[in-house]
Amino acid sequence: MMRAVTLTEPGAPEMLRLGEVERPTRVNAEFLIRVVAAGVNPIDAKTRAGRGAWPGVTSTPVVLGNDFSGVVVEAPYEAHPLQPGTEVYGMGMVPRMGGAYAEYLTVPALSVARKPPSLSHVEAAGVPLRRSPRGAWSSRRRRRTRGSGCSSTRARAASATSRCSSPPTSAPT
Fold this sequence. Notes:
173 residues; 5-stranded antiparallel sheet; 29% strand; globular
């Protein structure tokens, strides 16, 4: 079992509840990630309100949260470059899989990238949807440039602070 923020019916943010759910089990080309920080993006808010991905919810309670930063617990296979203990970030597949508003989540290997050491977990959790329509994993094909931005909007679930430093911006190579 693990702790998670769950939703049994769509509605206002007050509908979210802290509870216990089964810890997910990794299969095939998935990672098991221990979540350190979860981002809150517009799709999460729409889904919670009954729009967004809510039509895909087949059972409740559901754990929301697409954007995350955390640590690999189990890798898809022994030779994968991201092994247990590696700090990563990425996007989940809510509602097809449990979300990031939990202690653990499983995600496909293509939905995960190594977390840049220059970003805290809270900052990294705000990056995936913000930086690319394909999420964090597309950063492998991009180079870092100086830029500004604040990911505090998406990091509210992980931290009460409104201060954030400037995450890197990406530009096509």
